[in-house]
Amino acid sequence: MSLERARNWLAQFGLADRIREFSVSSATVELAAKALGTQEERIAKTLSFLVEDAPVLIVAAGDVKIDNPKYKAQFHTKAVMLPADRVEALVGHAVGGVCPFGVNEGVRVYLDESLKRFETVFPACGTANSAAELTIPELERCSGYTAWIDVCKPRG
Fold first, then answer.
1. What is the mean pLDDT of each run of 10 residues along the chain (156 residues)?
2. Torsions phi, psi for 28 (to 5 deg)
3. Which of the chain's ends, N or C, has fewer CB atoms near its CB within 10 Å?
4. In sequence order, which ranges of the chain are alpha helices (DSSP H)?
5. Comparing C-alpha atoms, which of 47, 41, 26 is closest to residue 115?
6. Mind telling me which residue stretches traverse the membrane in this protein (predicted)?
7. pTM attached to this predicted model
8. In the chain, which ranges are E strands?
């Protein structure tokens, strides 16, 4: 059902045919990169947080993590990820398939600057075994993003 929700959303932008489904899991950055045959950094992971009791999604490159001081400067609160058991109800997609496509009303989407170094990236499409290759302008157009932000730093 979540895949269909993402597919219907992307269809509005003429991008539904970009969705790829896999016979293996793509629920993590590492698994998605293997399933797609690409580098981990090109996986556009969608992280879910609570800001003022409302869900917020941050789409970031696969090789970065949240930088807590930058996050606090941006949102004026500590980074608190949504509990896994509440993600689907609050966002509209389950953990492993969270994406910015067809999310619940009121969910704000932000794109992290870490994505701008790529021509195309691979966000999930609502399930733990799907993704789509999108250009950055396509991601901007179909994600309904609120703003570009800089809240990440390299892993490690």
1. 94 98 96 97 98 96 98 97 96 96 97 98 97 98 97 93
2. -120, 165
3. C
4. 2-11, 29-36, 68-75, 84-91, 136-143
5. 41
6. none
7. 0.97
8. 19-21, 43-51, 54-61, 64-66, 108-112, 120-123, 130-132, 134-135, 147-149, 152-154
